[in-house]
Amino acid sequence: MSRQQFDSLDSKILQMLSQNARIPFLEIARECNVSGAAIHQRIQKLTASGVIQGFNTLIDPASLGYETCAYIGFFLNEPSNFDNVVEQLKTIPEIVECHYTTGKYDLLIKLYAKNNAHLLEIIHGPLQSIGSGRTETLISFKQEFMRQVPINEDHD
Q: Is the Cβ–Cβ distance between 113 and 70 less than 8 Å?
C-alpha cells in the first residue's frame, strides 16, 4: 500500500480511534467540531482505502490459559517453499503472527501456548511436521507494552 495523504481531521480521527477503537463517532465529531455524518464518511473513506484495517478486541491470552508467548524463527531449506510453509502455519491456531524477514530468519512467527509443555508439543508436532528446515525459539517472559504507530499531523 502506498503512503496516504491525511489532513488534520483524518489525523485527529486516527489518533482518537487508535486510543479507543470503541469511541462513539458522535464523540469524535464533538471533539473535532464537525458533524457525525462527516466523521462517518471519513472513517468509511479511511477504511475503504485500507488505512483502517479493522477494529479488534484485544484479549489477554493469559486469561484464556495461554501463559507462554514465544517467537520462532524459521530457517527454510527451500526458500521457494515460503507460500506452502505459510499455508501450513495458518492451520495452527496458536500462531497469531507470521512475518517474512530479512537477516537471520526467513520467517518469524509469534504464538501463544498454555505452558512450556504445550509449546514443546506444538514444536514437536505441527511445526516439525511442516519439515521446513530448522527453527530457533525465543520465549517472552513479559510484554512490557504494545502500541500503535505514531500518528502525527506533519506527515513528512
A: yes
Cα 145 to Cα 33: distance, rounded to the nearest angstrom: 32
Helix (H) or strand (E) holding 73: strand 68-76
Closest CA to 141 of 94, 71, 73, 72: 71
Query: Which residues, 6 or more positions from 69, have their beta carbon under 8 angstroms from its beta carbon?
Result: 61, 110, 111, 112, 139, 140, 143
> What is the per-residue pLDDT across 5-62, written as a single tens digit (0 to 9) for each?
789 999 999 999 999 999 999 999 999 999 999 999 999 999 999 999 999 888 999 9
| CB distance 37 to 43 below 8 Å | no
CA torsion sign for 60, 117, 101, 90 is: negative
Q: What's 84's DSSP letter?
A: H
CA-closest candidate to residue 108, choices 140, 86, 130, 128: 86
Which residue type is seen at 45?
K
Q: What global pTM score does this model have? A: 0.83
Percent of the chain with pLDDT over 90: 77
Report yes or no: 137 and 71 within 8 Å, Cβ to Cβ. Answer: yes
